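Recall that a protein's primary structure is simply its ordered list of amino acids. Everything else, from secondary elements to tertiary packing, is in principle encoded there. The following example makes that idea concrete.
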Amino acid sequence: MRIIVTLLTWFFGIMALVAVFSDLTDGRSGIIDVGGLWFEMAPSSLQISEAIISRYIDPCGLFISLDCAPFLWHPVISFFLLLPAAPFFIVMTALVIVLRKMRNHRGNKAKPRKSANKAANTQINE
């Protein structure tokens, strides 16, 4: 789990740097959104992701008997794709770091210290 969290932290951090660099060097006025950044970096993966999510992951696209319109890609994921990229990735990086710190802090309280256990064991053994 620690490796996955570390990889997510690095991914979001690097994407934040890429988004800031793209905003500063791009001649257009305005900032790039998450979907635009994804499209610049890998346009075919964006299109493939939409098709896979709409057809195979979205419950309305997966089960015809539900008789509903697919809702996962267009209202949910497209909302996040339209957010400004630099602030989004900065916030995501900070969120992952804070959650990791909270988890580590909580985990340290639950586990007894090794040095305290060794001292107690030596006193009992003597």
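The chain has a mean pLDDT of 84. The chain has one domain: 2-118.
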